[in-house]
Amino acid sequence: MVLPTEAARNLGTETAFEVLARANKLAAEGRSIINLGIGQPDFATPDNIVRAGEQALADGKHGYTPGAGIPELREAVARDLQRRHGAEVDPDSVLITPGAKPVMF
């Protein structure tokens, strides 16, 4: 029988849902809460995003993206920062993540 390693035995569980429940309880009590927890959009996915997702699937893009993000998107973000803010940003310094948690922790 394979036994888990010490490191595996020490892994904790995901606590984000516990934190969300506590934050909701405090908010219901009238406390001011800055929610950095689980995000859920309050709007429908825009049609152009739905179409782009469908096209990506049709084009066979089924795997994970690179860890730092799709290079073309990182370049576009760097260009946008230059255009809007005059900031010279190297695309290699841009990280695209699926939320704040991966870069905070």
Low-confidence stretches: none
What is the beta-strand fraction? under 5%
Let me know the largest β-sheet: none
Distance between the termini: 33 Å
Q: What's the total helix number?
A: 5
Strand segment count: 0
Computed over alpha carbons, the radius of gyration is: 20 Å
The shape is extended
How would you describe what is shown here?
By secondary structure, this protein is mainly α. The chain has 5 helices and no strands. The chain has helices at 6-9, 16-28, 47-58, 71-85, 101-104. The protein starts with 5 loop residues before the first helix and ends with a helix. The model has no long low-confidence stretch (mean pLDDT 87).
Task: Write the SSE topology.
Elements: H1 6-9, H2 16-28, H3 47-58, H4 71-85, H5 101-104
Concise structural overview:
The chain is an all-alpha fold. It contains 5 helices and no strands.
Q: Any descriptors?
A:
mainly alpha, 105 residues
